[in-house]
């Protein structure tokens, strides 16, 4: 499944509990931080891989922000004359 370790159903259950408790806005870094202070010893990459395999995604939608360049507003200098 994931390299040398196979998917542990207990790990998936623990991740689902934290994911559902957060009402689904958390991604793998936040789930990992929530689990870090508890007795669950799972690494960040492992949490991310398990969440991908289980189809758990954060529910937030991000918009790409565009920055308008100053050069687009300036007229080009007249170098022909």
Description:
Helix 2 crosses helix 3. This protein has helices at residues 9-21, 28-36, 44-54. It is built from 3 helices and no strands. The protein is mainly α. The model has no long low-confidence stretch (mean pLDDT 77). Helix content is 41%, strand content 0%. It has a domain at 9-54. The chain starts with 8 loop residues before the first helix and ends in a 27-residue tail after the last helix.
Class derived from helix and strand content: mainly alpha
The strand count comes to 0
Low-confidence stretches: none
- Number of separate helices: 3
Core attributes:
81 residues; 3 helices; 0% strand; single chain
What is this structure, in a nutshell?
This protein has helices at residues 9-21, 28-36, 44-54. With 81 residues, the protein is mainly alpha-helical. The model has no long low-confidence stretch (mean pLDDT 77).
Q: How would the blueprint of this fold be written?
A:
Layout: H1 9-21, H2 28-36, H3 44-54
């Amino acid at each position: 499944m994931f390299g040398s370790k196979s998917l542990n159903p207990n790990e998936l259950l623990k991740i689902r509990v934290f994911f559902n408790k957060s009402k689904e806005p958390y991604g793998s870094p936040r789930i990992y931080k929530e689990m870090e202070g508890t007795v669950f010893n799972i690494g960040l990459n492992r949490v991310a891989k398990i969440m991908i395999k289980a189809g758990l995604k954060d529910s937030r939608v991000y918009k790409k922000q565009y920055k308008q360049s100053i050069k687009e507003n300036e007229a080009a200098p007249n170098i022909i004359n």
